[in-house]
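User: Can you help me understand a structure? I only have the sequence.
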Amino acid sequence: MVASGPVADFRPVESNKARILTLRPAPAGTPLDTANSEWVEIRVELDSDLANWRVAHLRALWLEEVGRPVEWEWIYTFGSPHFAKAGEIYRIHSGSQVRAALHPVPDDLAPGRKHVYVAGPVHAARLLWTKGDYVRLVDAFGTVVDEIVVWPDAAAKPQVGAATARR
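Assistant: Let's start by predicting it. Here is the structure, written out as C-alpha cells:
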C-alpha cells in the first residue's frame, strides 16, 4: 500500500488550492515583440489536481445599454488532469512560447517558475492587462477562488496579490 500526504481534490469549493500570487502588466507603449514581459503568477498552496481551473481576464465596460457590463475571456485553462505540488508557481505570459525560445526576455528565464504562454504563434501575442481590469482564478466548478484588480503604479512595478484590492 502506498501512502501519500493530504490531497485536496474533488471538492467543489476548495479556495485554498491555489492563489494569484503576482501580476505584472506591461508598461504603456510595450511592443508586442516583448509581450512575454507581461504575466500573472499562480501559486499552488496544496498538493492537488487543478484540472480545468482557469485564469480569466475581465474588463468593466460601464455602458448603460449593456445588461451585464463586463467583457471577459478565458486566458488559460489548466489541463485535465493537472496534478500540482504545493509551492509550485505558474507564470502565465501574455506572449508566445515560440518568441520565448527564439528571443527570450529576462522574464522567460526566471528560475523557480513553470512558464506557460497564452499565445501559440508569435503573431498571436497581445497585451492583456490595463488599469481597472480584473484577473480571476476560477475553479473547475466556476467558483471564483481569487481575484485582483489591475492597478499598475507609475513605475510599472509588479503588483503583489496580497497588496491589491480583493473581492
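Now, to help you interpret it: Confidence is low (pLDDT under 50) at residues 7-13, 156-167. The longest helix spans residues 97-102. Let me know which part you'd like to focus on.
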